[in-house]
Automatic annotation (TrEMBL):
Assigned keywords, A-Z: Lectin, Signal
Entry-linked InterPro entries: Terpenoid_cyclase/PrenylTrfase
MF annotations from Gene Ontology: carbohydrate binding
Protein name: Fucose-binding lectin II
Length: 349
């Protein structure tokens, strides 16, 4: 899931692409794909590294920085990107122990002052470890709290598109979640709000300006609207427009990224978000690892993303392995080993 530090992650993770294996594409040019063997190898390396991180409660980059810590993260209790980190582990078959759950629950900071981003992240993270966010008792609290109801009662009017997308993904992640009375938004109203924030170039930006549109924000907006299953025509058109923006702005390397001062900066985080958005329809799914999107493209997004994964499972130049592992592993899971699924990766029930 996108978080408030995603743009920072992209801006600090400028990485180079590695070697790939060619197959022929319909574009009268070769595009290199991630073979099943390489996918298995890369995912195994990622998983092995992430399990060590979870066991040690370390971010994998800084030898002293923790993933879950109230003292290090006083407003949330966890490192940025922790929900995708936990979801990635779950998708790869990790079984969270009682000790794991205790560590997470005692550190997460959820209270009356928690903002929408914090609540949305917790809703996904808790479900990943098998905890019901509608009956969650925060550390030190005297009674259970329904985080879904609490999120629904937060105003989305002044939130960034990033936070709106996070919230929409969270409330859409489980069909058992019900909108409470006096809710400030519905899945339909929020998806429409996001759709209307689409810029003239068919993308989305953290500050709602065309000049600041980026692949990360656009991809997450598309994923969120698809999660909502809205049938509104404006929303449906926006979903298509967003995917078209991504197709137009993919780099020839197959990666996604950002452009700064005229220089392309592909990176694993942006590429992962692009994969998530492309995986939302059967039509665009084929561009994840089967076909080139544009002429001259040398590799598929999945191949490009995996090229950042080192032999030990760490990700090249990632400033936070919590964020990098989470996004890469969730994106890989969205590919479903080459079999398209209508069940989107953030869906629990």
């Amino acid at each position: 899931m996108l978080n408030n530090k995603l743009i920072a992650a992209s801006l600090t993770a400028v990485m180079a692409l590695g070697a790939v294996v060619p197959v022929m594409d319909v574009n009268a040019a070769s595009v290199k794909v991630a073979s099943k063997k390489s996918q298995k190898s890369k995912q195994k390396a990622l998983y092995t590294y992430a399990k060590k991180m979870m066991k040690q409660n370390k971010d994998g980059v800084n030898g002293t920085a923790k993933i879950f810590s109230k003292s290090a993260f006083p407003t949330t209790g966890a490192a940025s990107g922790y929900s995708d980190f936990l979801l990635g582990l779950k998708k790869q078959g990790y079984k969270f122990s009682k000790a794991n759950k205790k560590l997470i629950k005692k550190n997460l900071v959820i209270n009356s002052k928690s903002d929408p981003a914090t609540l949305a992240t917790a809703i996904i993270g808790l479900q990943a470890i098998g905890v019901n966010p509608t009956k969650y008792k925060p550390a030190g609290a005297k009674k259970n709290m329904n985080l879904v109801n609490k999120l629904y009662k937060q105003s989305m009017s002044k939130q960034t598109v990033n936070v709106q997308s996070q919230a929409l993904i969270a409330v859409s992640s489980n069909k058992t979640f019900k909108k409470p009375s006096k809710a400030k938004f519905s899945k339909n109203s929020l998806s429409l709000k996001i759709a209307k924030n689409k810029q003239s170039n068919n993308g989305w930006a953290y500050n709602n300006t065309a000049a600041s549109v980026d692949a990360d924000t656009t991809a997450t907006a598309v994923t969120a609207m698809m999660m909502s299953k809205s049938k509104n025509k404006t929303v449906k058109k926006a979903e298509v427009a967003g995917r078209n923006y991504l197709k137009k702005n993919i780099y020839k390397s197959g990666a996604f990224g950002y452009t700064y001062n005229g220089k392309e900066n592909p990176n694993a985080n942006s590429t992962a978000e692009g994969i998530l958005a492309l995986s939302t329809t059967k039509t665009s799914y084929k561009f994840v690892n089967k076909k080139a999107i544009k002429k001259g493209q040398t590799a598929t997004p999945l191949k490009a993303m995996f090229s950042y994964v080192k032999a030990d499972g760490s990700i090249k130049d990632a400033y936070s392995m919590v964020l990098a592992y989470g996004q890469a592993s969730v994106a890989a899971s969205a590919y479903h080993n080459g079999n398209y699924s209508k069940k989107l990766v953030y869906t629990f029930k």
